[in-house]
């Protein structure tokens, strides 16, 4: 595996010109199950992922045949994600550290409009070399393209909202990738995901993040209701598998978890 060294630290990607066009916003809303009537002149806050991958995709390409997954993600929104205007996007590798052959890459995002900050982000990407430990009986059978998880009622003690059912089909993953440019093959190519040691395709971490923002961003008419969010990806979610959202909400934000009966997939905090 060709893996970038710590010399990657400080490397800058961009600036690139970027816009949230209405067509891509509609694709994103469709793929994430959001409200199409609400998101017309502005993109949902989770679509900051599209700006991220405008500069992160070239970075991840540096890792050749490594398995690259999302470990953590934080966003800060300084304003609404207005459609059909040009923004400038820059990404910077803030830190690269290695532990037992696994690279932990901290990547910082800055989205501006005429010099004004719109979105900032901080990603932790985890790159590792597949060790060949996936056996034939570990390989999962992929669901049909449009299959989502079967809903089952659940209860969550202490939750102030939800649980809301969420699931993505393989077709949803392709639609999400098209809307955000997150074409990491582990999210759509079964053989690539198996070769990466994952046993099969897994859902985009930032698709799950988009779901988790919806309880906080959907109410009301303010196009920029959120200030910041921070999320940790605990384990992969597969297409066709049913998961649930639940959490707490206050005037200032709250906490949210995506989970099933085996535990959390993603945990997060949101402020607004």
Secondary-structure map:
Elements: E1 12-18, H1 22-32, E2 42-43, H2 48-61, E3 67-77, E4 81-82, E5 87-99, E6 102-113, E7 116-128, E8 161-166, H3 170-180, H4 190-195, H5 205-217, E9 228-233, E10 243-250, E11 253-260, E12 263-271
Antiparallel strand pairs: 1-5, 2-4, 3-7, 3-9, 5-6, 6-7, 8-10, 9-12, 10-11, 11-12
Helix pairs in contact: 1-3
Question: Which key terms come to mind for this protein?
Answer:
alpha+beta; single chain; ten-stranded antiparallel beta sheet; Thiol Ester Dehydrase, Chain A; 20% helix; globular; 272 residues; 12 strands; two-stranded antiparallel ribbon
Low-confidence stretches: none
**Secondary structure: number of strands:** 12
Named at the architecture level, the CATH assignment is Roll
Number of helices: 5
Succession of helices and strands: EHEHEEEEEEHHHEEEE
Q: How many structural domains in the coordinates?
A: 1
| Secondary-structure class | alpha+beta
Describe this structure as you would to a colleague.
The protein has a single domain, classed as Hotdog Thioesterase (Thiol Ester Dehydrase, Chain A). Helices cover 20% and strands 36% of the residues. It has helices spanning 22-32, 48-61, 170-180, 190-195, 205-217, and strands at 12-18, 42-43, 67-77, 81-82, 87-99, 102-113, 116-128, 161-166, 228-233, 243-250, 253-260, 263-271. The strands form two sheets. The protein has a ten-stranded antiparallel β-sheet with strand order 1-5-6-7-3-9-12-11-10-8, with helices on one face. It has a two-stranded antiparallel sheet with strand order 2-4. A hairpin with a 2-residue loop joins strand 10 (243-250) and strand 11 (253-260). Helix 1 packs antiparallel against helix 3. The longest helix is centred in the first third of the chain and has 14 residues, at 48-61. The radius of gyration is 18 Å and the shape is globular.
């Amino acid at each position: 595996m060709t893996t970038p060294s710590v010399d990657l630290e400080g490397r800058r990607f961009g600036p690139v010109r970027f816009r949230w066009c209405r067509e891509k916003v509609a694709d994103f809303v469709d793929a994430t199950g959001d409200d199409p009537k609400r998101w017309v002149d502005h993109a949902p806050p989770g679509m900051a992922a599209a700006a991220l991958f405008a500069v992160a995709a070239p970075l991840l390409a540096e890792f050749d045949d490594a398995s690259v997954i999302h470990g953590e993600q934080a966003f800060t929104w300084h304003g609404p994600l207005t459609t059909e205007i040009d923004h400038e996007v820059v990404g910077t590798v803030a830190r690269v550290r290695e532990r037992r052959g696994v690279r932990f890459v901290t990547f910082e995002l800055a989205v501006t409009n005429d010099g004004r900050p719109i979105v900032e982000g901080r990603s932790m990407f985890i790159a590792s070399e597949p060790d060949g430990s996936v056996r034939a009986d570990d390989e999962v059978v992929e669901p049909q393209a449009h299959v989502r998880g079967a809903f089952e009622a659940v209860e969550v003690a202490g939750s102030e909202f939800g649980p809301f059912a969420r699931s993505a089909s393989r077709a949803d993953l392709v639609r999400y990738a098209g809307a955000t440019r997150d074409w990491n093959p582990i999210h759509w190519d079964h053989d690539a995901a198996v070769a990466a040691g994952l046993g099969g395709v897994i859902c985009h971490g930032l698709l799950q993040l988009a779901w988790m923002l919806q309880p906080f961003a959907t109410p009301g008419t303010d196009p920029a209701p959120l200030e910041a969010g921070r999320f940790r990806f605990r384990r992969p979610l597969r297409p066709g598998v049913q998961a649930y959202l639940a959490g707490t909400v206050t005037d200032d934000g709250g906490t949210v978890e995506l989970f099933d009966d085996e535990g959390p997939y993603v945990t997060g905090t949101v402020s607004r």
